[in-house]
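Protein modeling request. Please complete all fields; requests missing the sequence field cannot be processed.
Requester role: graduate student
Desired output: 3D structure, token encoding
Chains: 1
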Amino acid sequence: MLQSFIPHLLITSLMGYLAESENRFLKRLLINSFVYLYKPDLREAIHSNVDNYISYNDFFTRKLKNRDIDKSEKTFISPVDGEIVDHGYIKDKNLIQAKRYEYSLEELLGEKNVDKFNEGYFVTIYLAPTDYHRIHCPYEAVIRRSIHLGSSLFSVNKKAQETIPKLYIKNERSVLHLSSNIFDYALVSVGASVVGSIVPFWGSQKTSSRNNLIREWNRGPDESESSIKKGDELAYFKMGSTVILLFEDTKKLDLDSLNQKKRVKFGESLISLKNL
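Delivered output (276 residues):
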């Protein structure tokens, strides 16, 4: 397969350098090319004029104007804008990719102690290049642990999902383990080709060093920053990618409320909660 022979990290490093450049000509060329090709909706962005962004990455990770979020204690909101591409029960410590490939929960999380999520539920959300690329807290919780895993950077678009087995456990990813007042859950942010950086809210927002970001993820937030509210920003991608949510307790999930959805937006209900 062609992707296996492409030096992904080298390409990602080069693209990262160009995307961070504040050269006026280069950043205009990159941003205007993206707008021409993908036609993103900028109406919700704080800056709708592309000339207000200092670099391509500044544009790509643009913040939104205040968006209303579902604040009900009986809803688990979508942490991102994107498309639900997979969801289902976690059986025998395995998840499903593209409705055909199994991959290991242990390998996804990088540990053997995954029993609490076995027989739980997962939701995989794909972020297209035009989507908003910041990741938010889906339900009030405390961050118990964070970890960075993997090194490859394959594309995670639909074709890649359907043709590369075990894609998500091959790619670079960051894992947040969270505890809420109703159950524990995990949020896995999966990198992709040209997505060399997943920047946590507690990390340096300016660093372009991959090693520094890995250290930040493995360090985790300070204790004073570990309690997060629904809607708080957790991290952002510097290109399109994927988020996987893992739930330990399906008894409190109204799965019918999820099954009706395909496209989701940050802030709206992803799954209704029951038996609270």
